[in-house]
Amino acid sequence: MFNRFIFLISQFFIFTTCAVAQDVVTSYLQKDDTPLDKIEGSYYYRNVFLDTIINNTKIYRIEEYYSADNSAKTLGYSSVDKPPLKYMGELQRFYSNKNLASFEKYNKSGSLIDTAYYFYPNKSLKMMLNLNVKAITSFPVKPIEYLAYYDSLQVRLLKNGDGFVRVDLVTGLVSEDSLSYEEGTLSKNKREGLWKGVSGKYRFEENYTNGLVIEGKCFWPDGKVVAYTNSTISEAPEYPGGVEALMEYVSNNFVYPDEAKQHKVSGIINVNFFVDELGNIKNIRVKKDLGYNTSRAAIKVVQTLGKWKPGTLKGIPQKVSYTLPIRLNSF
Q1: Can you tell me the distance from the alpha carbon of 190 to that of 188, in angstroms, rounded to the nearest whole number?
Q2: Which residue, among 113, 108, 151, has the nearest Cα to 130 in the 3D structure?
Q3: Closest alpha carbon to 209 in 185, 226, 231, 227
Q4: Alpha-carbon torsion 153, 155, 160, 163, what sign?
Q5: How far apart are the C-alpha atoms of 140 and 167, rounded to whole Å?
Q6: pLDDT string in tens for the chain (331-residue length)
Q7: How far apart are CA 184 and CA 157, in angstroms?
């Protein structure tokens, strides 16, 4: 089986290979991917092998097995050895009853390509899709052409981009999570009419015409209803008063370090952080540093920014990354 994987991977490279020792790193994980120190209490375990080196690129063989009976869970290759894994070539996933759950192909960049197949636990086909064309879905736009979708009784609900389909809210692929999906009708692989979905404790409804959201409503658990359109389906986090107020605050409150003044430091410091679902700033880090304690000063001023209006997707608050450029001018 793995000889087939290597053959497919080789199609992505004009390559020079190097044999390597087959050392293995084993990780034990719970069903939600939480790591454990030992196999006891684990749902599955992952073996990672440094399989080969192609044009100075390390290729790792990934083997995952269910802890209960050591049957295969995932078989494939990755260009990185730690999560999030970056798959290459063929990837097969299996149910705990040993039946095939999915068959996918990835390019050397880790992107899903070609035709992918997804199955029910009883081996019957659930979904078939193709990633060679650019079909309009929802935000974010994904190049997916839906070829077939069957219900559990093997009634075909979609054929070649026409019909009903339920997809994962994040990936647009087969839906496996009852708390993260959207469903509705496609016409020539473009959304039409009423679509409904769930994201955790939120639910939403959208009306589409030719793949575009004409109107959408998000229903919050407290009864609040947030309306949006195609132009407002995704909104970035916002500082109170907007960008101008943000820049004015930073300008007035950034403390220029004495050491930086002495060396006449000027330029741009890029500070990255997350604005969480409640509008709080998290995980502050400097992406571009000018030295002389300017990074410390930048972090200090960001820490005082207070609450923001959180970013939203489909009216649902999201944890969103934000990069703030702080320009310093030498005296």
Answers
A1: 6
A2: 113
A3: 185
A4: negative
A5: 13
A6: 444 444 444 444 444 455 555 689 999 999 999 999 999 999 999 999 998 887 788 999 999 999 999 999 999 999 999 999 999 999 999 999 999 999 999 998 898 999 999 999 999 999 999 986 444 344 444 579 999 999 999 999 999 999 999 999 989 999 999 999 999 999 999 999 999 999 999 999 999 999 999 999 999 999 999 999 999 999 999 999 999 999 999 999 999 888 888 888 889 999 999 999 999 999 999 987 888 889 999 999 999 999 999 999 999 999 999 999 999 876 5
A7: 11
Task: Give the tokens for residue 6.
Answer: 């290597």
Residue 234 CB contacts under 8 Å (≥ 6 apart), including other chains:
139, 140, 311, 312, 313
Q: Is the pTM of this model over 0.70?
A: yes
Backbone angles phi, psi at 260, to 5 degrees: -70, -35
Q: What is each CA distance from 63 to 9, 44, 73, 144, in whole angstroms?
A: 16, 10, 8, 27
Tokens matching residue 313: 């997707």
Tokens of 298: 């930048």
Contact 214, 230 (CB under 8 A): yes
Size of the chain in residues:
331
Return the structure tokens found at 192.
Answer: 């039409």
- Structural contact between residues 206 and 194, judged by C-beta atoms closer than 8 angstroms: yes
